[in-house]
């Protein structure tokens, strides 16, 4: 649905990155009547098989739902596709479990959503807007942000493509090329931190009669002090299982017998669910991925360029808020377009000046929540204070 824009001339806006945040932002801008060109490095995700190593599902929370509601997609994502998770289910080392509700008072849930499905729905929805053009296989190479200029290379034909836009929005993820160009701007602060832990994705398949092998309406956690495993339910009754652990521990498990010994000791109830053969295959065919936090500011360059999503605040995944915070960026930006009648010279600085505190807070909370999930969640509350002090 197009919004009334008071007869103003539409802006030509280039969105770099057709991931979750870029494709949502394209919808928000298209609804305002602007001409949006989306440039995405990869092929159209709707035509490619699942990419291993990218989390297959994500926890959608109220920030993300709000944004999806704005663009008319909340019902399809939450009611038709999402699997509600109303509590954490904690798995003890002896295999017994107990649950901790997220919201015991009003019983709100977070929702497990397929990453590819969500991205596909956002891209498909953009086809309903004539003012959105999608360019896949376009990798951003160079920028002149103050002039609104971008140069891409087409990954299939190797042809170079140059464009000029009224506004560049960099939604090109944690290793953003748009952000890299901002590093040259005076007074641009930037820090990144890799943590010592990585993650590896495993899978619990559906049971033989195509049902869930564990109760589905929970985020399952196996907290083990310095490491943990989690599982989120998928629509096909499988589970995306993610093992978070220091890289040094991943490296020390270098044989099938060591792997089975490790799982039998720490995650005995998960072994029959995953299956020994599949566990060995998935563990040794994958390699653990690193986790990074990025903080930077300001997020804009004059009235020409802005970064949002992971490009502006990459967070470790333990708070389940990376995408949700990126979606909230889009909501806030939309509110500023309304407040300032699409005047970029007012919108961009206000976004930078007001957003960074929340973005920095999410980065810090996500880091803290790893300790909470892998360790503190199992401790009686009187010991919590000491554990936090010892961190
Ligand atoms: P991305 O998803 O990284 O998309 C960036 C896009 O830009 C990509 O499509 C990429 O191909 C494209 N691109 C990159 N470089 C270029 C270039 N040079 N030219 C053109 N295009 C380019 N968040 C949650 O809210 N809930 C969760 O439960 C959750 N779980 C997670 C679990 C794990 C294991 C991880 C690693 C992350 C998790 N996150 C979660 C975080 C979430 O995945 C990210 O915050 C989210 O994907 C950010 O979206 P984005 O669009 O900003 O970046």
Count the DSSP helices: 12
Instruction: Give the rounded overall mean pLDDT.
Output: 93
- Beta percentage is 25-35%
Structural class: alpha/beta
Based on CA atoms alone, the radius of gyration comes out at: 22 Å
User: Which word captures the global form?
Assistant: globular
Low-confidence stretches: none
EC number: 1.14.13.9
Main location: mitochondrion
Catalytic activity: L-kynurenine + NADPH + O2 + H(+) = 3-hydroxy-L-kynurenine + NADP(+) + H2O
GO molecular function: FAD binding; kynurenine 3-monooxygenase activity
Write structural notes for this entry.
It contains twelve helices and 19 strands. It has a seven-stranded mixed sheet with strand order 6-5-14-15-16-13-17. A hairpin with a 5-residue loop joins strand 10 and strand 11. It is globular. It binds flavin-adenine dinucleotide (FAD). Flavin-adenine dinucleotide (FAD) binds next to helix 1, strand 3, strand 9 and helix 10.
Q: What does the secondary structure layout of this molecule look like, with pairings?
A:
Elements (H helix, E strand, L loop, with lengths): L11 E5 L3 H12 L3 E5 L17 E4 L1 H9 L3 H8 L1 E3 L1 E5 L5 E5 L8 E5 H12 L5 E4 L2 E7 L4 E6 L5 E5 L2 E4 L6 H6 L6 E16 L13 E6 L4 E6 L5 E8 H6 L3 H11 L3 H5 L1 H10 L3 E9 L2 E2 L3 E3 L14 H18 L4 H31 L6 H10 L1
Parallel strand pairs: 1-2, 1-12, 2-8, 5-14, 12-19
Antiparallel strand pairs: 3-7, 4-7, 5-6, 9-10, 10-11, 13-16, 13-17, 14-15, 15-16, 18-19
The structure holds flavin-adenine dinucleotide.
The site of flavin-adenine dinucleotide has 32 residues, from helix 1, strand 3, strand 9 and helix 10.
């Amino acid at each position: 649905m197009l919004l009334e824009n008071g007869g103003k001339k539409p802006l030509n806006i280039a969105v770099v990155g057709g991931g979750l945040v870029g494709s949502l932002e394209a919808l928000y801008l298209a609804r305002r009547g602007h001409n949006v060109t989306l440039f995405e490095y990869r092929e159209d995700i709707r035509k490619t098989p699942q990419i291993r190593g990218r989390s297959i599902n994500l926890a959608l929370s109220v920030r993300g739902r709000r944004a999806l509601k704005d663009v008319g997609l909340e019902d399809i994502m939450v009611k038709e596709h999402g699997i509600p998770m109303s509590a954490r289910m904690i798995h003890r080392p002896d295999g017994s479990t107990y649950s901790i509700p997220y919201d015991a008072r009003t019983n709100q849930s977070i929702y497990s959503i397929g990453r590819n499905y969500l991205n596909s729905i956002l891209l498909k929805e953009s086809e309903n807007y004539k003012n959105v053009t999608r360019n896949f296989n376009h990798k951003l190479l160079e920028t002149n942000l103050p002039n609104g200029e971008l140069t891409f290379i087409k990954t299939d034909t190797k042809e170079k493509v140059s464009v000029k836009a009224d506004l560049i929005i960099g939604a090109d993820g944690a290793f953003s090329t748009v952000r890299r160009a901002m590093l040259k701007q005076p007074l641009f602060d930037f820090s990144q931190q890799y943590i010592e832990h990585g993650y590896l994705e495993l899978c619990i398949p559906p049971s033989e009669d195509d049902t869930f092998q564990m109760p589905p309406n929970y985020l399952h956690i196996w907290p083990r002090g310095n490491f943990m495993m989690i599982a989120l339910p998928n629509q096909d009754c499988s589970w995306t299982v993610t093992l978070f652990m220091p890289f040094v521990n991943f490296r020390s498990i270098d044989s099938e017998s060591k792997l089975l010994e490790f799982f039998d000791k720490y995650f005995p109830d998960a072994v029959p669910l995953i299956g020994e053969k599949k566990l060995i295959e998935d563990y040794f065919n994958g390699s653990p991925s690193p986790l990074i936090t990025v903080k930077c500011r300001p997020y804009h360059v004059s009235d020409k360029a802005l970064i949002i999503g992971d490009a502006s605040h990459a967070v470790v995944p333990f708070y389940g808020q990376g995408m949700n915070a990126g979606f909230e960026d889009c909501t806030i930006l939309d509110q500023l377009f309304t407040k300032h009648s699409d005047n970029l010279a007012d919108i961009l600085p206000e976004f930078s000046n007001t957003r960074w505190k929340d973005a920095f807070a999410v980065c810090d909370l996500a880091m803290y929540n790893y300790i909470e999930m892998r360790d503190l969640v199992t401790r009686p509350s009187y010991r919590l204070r000491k554990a936090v002090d010892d961190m």
